[in-house]
Amino acid sequence: MEILDFILHVDKYLQILINQYGGFVYFILFFIIFAETGFVITPFLPGDSLLFIVGTFSSLNLLDIKIVYPLLLISAILGNVVNFFIGYHFGEKILRNGKFKKFIKEKHIKETEMFFQKHGGKAVIISRFLPIFRTFVPFVAGIGKMDIHLFMIYNFVGGFTWITFFIFLGYFTGNIPFIKENITHFIYAIILVSLIPVVLKAIKR
Fold first, then answer.
1. Model-level pTM?
2. Which of 3, 34, 40, 86 could form a disulfide with 79 if both were Cys (CB 3.0 to 4.6 A apart)?
3. 9 pLDDT band (50/70/90 cuts)?
4. Domain boundaries along the sequence of the chain
5. Taking a C-beta distance cutoff of 8 angstroms, is the pair 14, 57 a contact?
C-alpha cells in the first residue's frame, strides 16, 4: 500500500524527500527512474507522473532543471541499456528460474513479446509511454538478441522523447494556478491516460 500511496501522491513524497535530503534528492530521482527502466522486477515504480512533478517542481525552483533534466535523461537511457543486456545475457535463465516468478509475471512477458513482434524496433520508443511495457520491452529485446546498434538508436530516441515531454510538460504548466491548485488530480489523470492502452487491450481480449 505504501508504494501505491507514493505513486498516487508523488508530489507530496517528493516534497518530503527534498526537505529531508536536499541536493541528495537528485540521486534518489536518478535511482528511481533507473530502476523503473532498468530492472525487470520493478515495473511498479512511478514514471510519467514522477517526471511531470519533477518538471513542476523545477518551475517552482524547488529543483534545478539544468541538473535534473540531463541527469534523468542519462538515467532513463542507461536503465534501458542495463535491462537490455540483462535480457541479452541472462534473460532465458532468469525466466526458467522459479525464484523470479513472483516478480516477473509470465503474462506480462507474453504480452510484451506480442507487442515487440508487432511493432518491431519502434516498440522500444513507443513502450516508453506505456507502463509495464516500458520495463519489459528492453528485457525482451535483449532475449530476442535485437541488433545492439539499432537498440541503442531507438533507446536514445525513446528516452529523449519520454524524459523531455513529461519534464517540460510539468515545467511549462506547473505555474498555471489551476494546475498548481489541482496537482493531485493531474497526477491521477496522467496515470489514467498512461494506462488506457493497457485497459483497452484487456477489454479487446
1. 0.82
2. 34
3. confident
4. 2-204
5. yes
